Structure formats: structure tokens, C-alpha cells
Amino acid sequence: MDLLKPRTVPLSEETILWFEFLLKPSLLAKHLNKANPDPSPTDLITQFLAKAPEGQTHPPDLTAPDPDGAHRSDGLKYTKKQLALKILALKVAAFMRWDLDKLERTLSVSLQIQLLADLCSITAGKMVALPSSLLQDPALIGTDGSRHSFNFALTLYHRWVLRAQVLRAAVIKNFKSNHGPAVPDLTTFVLRDESSIPALEPITQLSIDYLNQVLMEPQTFRVLTYESFVPLDSNSEHTQQRFDAAIAIKPCELRAQLHYDLCQYYLYVQKYELARQNVLLCKDNYAQWQREEIGRTGLPPAYCTVSAEVLQGYLLACGVTGEPDGLLQRLHESILNHYSDIVMILKEDNLRKEIPMTQRKLLELNIEGYNAIGSTDGNPIEQKELELAVVALNIIRYVMDGENILSCNVALQKYKNQQPKLIESLFQYADEQYEQFSLEERGLLKRYFYKIITLYGGELGPAFEAYVQSYSKVVSLQELKDFRAQHTQPETQLGGVALQSDWVIPETKNPRLEVGQLERQLISCTSANAVRKLLVKIAGTNPSKPLFTINPSWTIPYPLEQVLIPLQRGFLQDFAYILIGKARELTARKEYATAITLLTVLKNETQRPELAGNPLIAKLGKMVSWEGLLVQIQQVLDEWPRKPVDQAQLVRNCKQCLNAAAGGGNELMPHAKLLDHCAALLLNLNEWNALLVPVDKRFPGIELCTAITQAFLDIEKFKGTKKTNREAWEMILPMFLNPPGSRQRQLPPDGPLVLLIGKLREPLVISILLSLLAKLHNILRDEANAEMNAEYMFLWPSNVNNTSIYNVKLVIEALNLLLNQALRYYPNNIPWLKLKGDVEFVANNFEAAMRYYVTALISGTEYCTVHLQRPLVDDFLIRRMVKCSTNLGCFVQAAVLCQFFDETDYGLAFKSISEKSASYSDAMDSYYSCIWDPTLLEFIVSFIGQLELNANNNDEIKREAAAVRKNRFLRSLAKQYMC
Fold first, then answer.
1. Where is the INTS8 TPR repeats domain (predicted)?
2. By the 8 A CB rule, do 345 and 330 touch?
3. Can you tell me the distance from the alpha carbon of 283 to that of 259, in angstroms, rounded to the nearest whole number?
């Protein structure tokens, strides 16, 4: 009820009319200080501004006398009534401590702009229209204005400019996703009314600059208070606001709020480094503000509305966990910084054992490759010493982990030319940390060093004793002498293979064995540089066949094979074939980064100057880049919902790929699999316009994506009104035809629909396709008891000609396939859970149907923490659940569910309760406490003594009793069907 609008009927004594707040200003403060004032503060602002809507965008012409009495104050072109109401609205906003969170949640954008414009106008002493980029000059202040107050108004306005864009983006995203419960804090933000938000974009940078300037200002920041605004008196012709009543706040409180707002905006525009800088500054200033101010005065904060919980969320979003970086993270950072501090990290890991040995081995191989290509970034001697240090530290970790010592000895054989230096490094690093190792680890190290003494002590001679003397903690000189005394030379002299310490191929110079070893290394290696070296070595043995035939598992796409085979036999042909084959193997193992690296190296290889001008090489380079794009798309789909690092570039590459296919002619065209993946990714990333391109009929996957895009655009264009979309319908309908002479078959796994379903991730796209399949099922099945409900079913036609030629079982198969895929990524999507329940219900899988129905209700009530209400539950769903319970023999359960109808179905409930006790499959006693309907209770006499369920109770008590019992019953169903 509008309490501020005068009425002709008698009003109660508690009703306050708007002019009474002018006559008695104390009434406003008294009203606002109530525990739950009705109307609320924001309702009051709405009412005050609604009484004076003009003056913000179209100031009245006051050259002629105004019947209400004009008020002029150096450019403030408000009537007295307008000014009085605007001051009251600003007093309420000041009472709310200018909390933009509350104002944005409850006021429309037009009223927010009007309130901010009134604040800027009154503090400046002249009219100000918003949005405007002229607000950057605070020197434009009238005689009745105040510099510090106008600065406060501008700061609030520029904060709002950034926040309004973030809020609008959140609303659009919530609207487009169209799944799950609506965001309650955004309900007042109506998209069709907010045409003013895009007008803020040109002045966004000015707002950022202004806020950064405020952060640097040395002057004290003053906040306007409730007393700063003086209401008009009935006898006054002129008013002077008490801007001196503003209070100064601590600089840390101001900085905490401004850095918080800037962080929000930078996250919205995906400038994550700037967001991280601002959230860290917000955190520091917030902590300082808490230490200096909170708890001292006992008063609420004057300006800052940042909460610790929300700030922690933004810290996590920006990657600031508050925990020290782990060793694995430090390892990755060290690699990016050219292996700085790598030795210290590995030494620390030998104690903490956080880095997996696979990562440490990859590091060793990377450094080896880095040195092998002859990098000029540093001193070659220092680089070689770094490589040996990493190898030595890895050997120590292998030994203490109890791993196969053969792998350690392979390293000693591998670096045979640098063996003295490697063994010295082993002694040095083991000695430095020896006392920090456990007793078990010390024992493992001693046994390993005794093995080294046995194998290499004689070869190194005095040098070995020098190592022992310098690093005596692991093995002392006395231990060395005792060990040698116990291990005298055997009488039988062995040589050749007998002296090999592990399964390293002996130096027999057998060419076939050597080639076999090289081929095994070529098959197992994952480094492009290693492949290059091995190909050169194997090519030197004059092989009779192309080297890419070594491993039959290396397969490449047919279009690439058509380009590679005509190439002259040689290094590039083998190198390209093997790298592409290895990339496909790695992609199948989901090692996407390594696969992309191999393809990038190959792409660079095709761009060497000596290969320029060869059309086959140019074609190969283009196709390799497309193959890399396919791997990137597969990685994005596999890691969904994590977004790619460079999403914008990936989208551009997908668009270029589709445009290449649309161009046609004799141009090089991407293969169909890549085009389907590009179209699916653009569909998932809401790049709708990119899919509105001419579609070649040879690519049904792209055609299907385009048709679904058109269906989405129809939803946006017609705002939910009935608009039949036929493009996707007519494409998908033939896929469910019965082949001649057969009534049973399965959807082809390589068909465009099945392939697209496997790549769909975006909720709105999935919902559109689900609605199509559900509508088609309802038409083909044509049974009222077998209907399915889904969103957007209004999009599709209501009938199909000659339904007998279609196979409804294939539709069910497609529905199940898509629903299983969708719920894998969004397990709590309520409409999809209900639809999955419908699919199971139609198949007479009543227990499975109940499980999905109950899961939907549990998710919608946030695990029974909020009351169950519509539209989450409706009569259609309840009737299905009753049917499921009855078919499962749970008759008391069905009777309890009958209470969930809008009007309790007593006939069905009484019938369920009257079933023979022997046929009950549910524990009837456990459900008695879930009954709230008095009539049903009278039928079950055992509950008539529950006082809160008395039929004479008022409606509020009855509603609360029903809500409590509904949640109790839901928990019971969840235990039965979900656990």
C-alpha cells in the first residue's frame, strides 16, 4: 500500500503523509530508526522522487511565475516542492550511509541516476545532468555549493558508473544462462529499461581516472551525513545546506572501498592483473581500517560497505589464496624465469617431496634440450653445471623414494663424459642436507653411495677419495677403507657384458641393436628436439623405409596425409608425420600442452626461409595450424567450465576457420571434424553472430549449430512469446526416421546430432535442444500420461505429418544422451533434473524418476534450508511423484504427497491410506510427522492431538506447520531415493 499518497477515506493515526515529513523533520528520523520501518528507506526514496520526476533531465523553464512558488538558487532550477522532496530523498540515502549495494538492489536505474544527479546538483549549487563527462572539473561550483561535498558526490557517481556496468553484465549473463534459481539481488534490474547503461562506456575511463585521483588526494575525504541536508521550511524562500556537518573518514576506509569497486570492474573487463593489484590494496587498507577504526567508536562504518567474506571471495577469484606458493608453483615460476633458484627449490623438495618425480624428470629433459639447441642466453659452462646439478638432485630424490636404482645408474652412464663432476655434485648435495634427512633416508643414501664406490671408485682413483674427504657426512674415509677391504677384487676377471651395471646395451657395435635402441627412443620421446636428433641419427643408417613407418600407431588425418605423402622423402616428411602422430596420441591421453607444443614446432619448421615458395609446404603449415586449433578446442571442451587463457584469440581463429569453409572455391578448406568443433565452441561461448554465415550442405554439423543459433535469436527477439522456429526442427526430424523394413535401430554414433551432443556445454543451448527433443517425443507418443515438460517448448511446431514413420525410441535415446551429458557439467540444474525424471517416468522406471524429482526439489530448496514453494513444485510434478510412489507400493508416501497440491486431493489421499497394510513398502510410522492437513489428520486419528495443526489455527500458523513438514518429508525422500 502506498502510505505516502493522500486518500479520501479516513486514515489511521499511524499513517504519515509526505508533507508531514516537511512540517516535522523529526518524524523522518523517528520513522527510519524503527526496527522494520514500513515503508522501507528505499521505498521512501522511490516515493519522494516519484513526486518530483522532472528536473533531472528536463529542468522546468522558470522565466514565468510558477503557481507552486519557484525556488531559484544560483542555477538550481527546482520548484520549492521538488527541492523539498529531493532533500528528503537525499536525507534517507545519507541515513543508509550511501550504500550502493542496497540502492542498486531496490531502485531502478532511472531512479539511481536521478538520485545521483540531485546529489551532484545540490552539492554543486547548479543543475547537473547525468550521464556526463563534464563532471571531471570540480571547480564548476555555484555560490551555494561546496567543494568537498561536490567531490563526495562525484566520487559516489563515478563509483556507480563502474558498478552499473558490472551489474548489467551479471543480469544479462543470468538471463542468457536461464537455468537454476534467479539471482534475487538483481530482480530490480530490468533490461528493457536500462538503455542508459551503454551511454556510460565512453566515460568509463574518465571515472577510473577520477577515482585514482581521489586515491592520491592528500586532502581529507568528507562524507555527507543525515544532518548535512536541511529540509525546507514552510516560511523559507531559500535554504542553505549544512555541508559543514559532513564527517571526515580515515584514508584507509576510503581506499578500501574504492579499490574494491575498481577490482570489481577490472574482473568484469578481464583485466586480471589490475584486478589483483586493486584487491591486494583493498585487503591491506581494509585490515588497517579494522585495526584503527572498527570497535573504537561503537558506531557503524560511515562509508565503506566491504564485507570480509565478499573480499575473501574476490581474493580467491584473483588468485590470492593467502597461502605461500607451493614448490610445484615455484618450480613453474622458476622455469618461466630461466630456471632461477631451481637448485634451491629442488633441494627443498628433497625434504618436503611435493613435486612429482615426473615433473622433475621433465625439468631435467627440458634443461637438456635447452642446452642442446645451443642457447646463447647464458654462459654454456654455467648451463651445463646447472644441468648436472638438476640430475644429481633428481638422483638423490629417486634414491630416497626407494625408486628403481637402475634409472639412477642410467643417468651416470648417460653423462659418462661428465661423470666426475656429476659424482662430486651427488656428494655435495647429499652432504649439505644429510642431517635433515630421516634415518631411513640416510640408510638408503649410504647404500647407494656404496654402490657408486663399487662401480666407479676405481675409475676415479684419488679424485674419489678427495670427494669423500670433502663431503664426509654420507661416507667417511674410514668407511671407504672398510668397504674396500671387504670388497676385494674377485679372482675371476670378468669383462664385456658381465661388467654392465644395468640393462644398458653393451658396446658391441651391433648396428641392428643400435638402430633398435634409437627407434625405441623415437617412439617414446615427447620432445620435438629429441625427435629431430633421433631422426638425424637413424637417417645415417640408410633405412630402407620411411622413418614414420617405425610405429604403426602414428596416424594422421587423411587431408594431411594427402599433403605429406607427395612430399619428397626426407627429413621434413618424417618429422612432420611423426610430430602429428605423436600430437594425436598425446591428445588422446589429454596431454594437450605437449601436443600443442609439438604442432607449434612443426608449424615453425614449415616457415623456414629455404622452404618458402613451395606450395605443398605452405599448405602443410596451414593445415598443421588447424590441427593445433582442433587440439585447443578439444582441451577447452574437456576442461569446461574453465575458460581458455586467450579466449578472444581462440574465437578469432574459429571464425577464420569457418570463413575459410564458407569461401568455397579452390581455396584450402579445413576438414569437417575441425569445422564441427569450431562451430560447437562458438555456440558454447555465445558467439551467435559468428554462426550466421552461409552454410555448405556438406557440413551438417555447422548447419545444425546455425539452426540452434537462430532459435536462440528468436527467443531474444520475441521475448518468450510464441514464435515457431522450423530450421532446427526440420534438420533434426529426418534423423529419427525408420529405415525401410526395420523398426529397431540406434542413433549412428558418427551422425551430426550425436557428435554435436558430445560437444555441447552452454546451458541455454542445451535447454533449446532438450526442448526440441521433448516436444518431438510428446507429438510422436501422443499420450497425456507420457508427456514431458521442458523450457522453450513454445519454439517448436505442434504437429508432425505421418508420425508412424518416425522412431520415438531414437528420440528417447537422444534425450538420455543429451541429459546425461548436461547433468555431468550442471548436476543441479532443476529443469533438467525434472526432465530426466520425466524420461524415466515415461519408461516406467519409477524409482529412478523419483530420484531425479527429489533431487530437483532438494536442489531448489538449497538442501531443505528454504521453504518449498512454486514454481519449483507444481501439480504436474506432484501428480507424477504420487504415481511413482503408488507404483512402488509406497502408499503413505503417496498420501503425504497429496497435500502438496494447490488443493489437497483427499480422494486420492484416502484411497492411498486405505490400501491393505500388507502392500505397504514404506515405513508408514515415519511419515505421520510429515502430515499437516487437518482433514487428513482426522482421517488418521493418531495425529489429532497435535495442537499446532488444529483446524482453528490462523493461516500463518498453518503455513509454517506445512512448510516445516514439507522439508521434513523432502529429507525423508532424499534418504530413500538419493542415498
1. 513-977
2. yes
3. 9
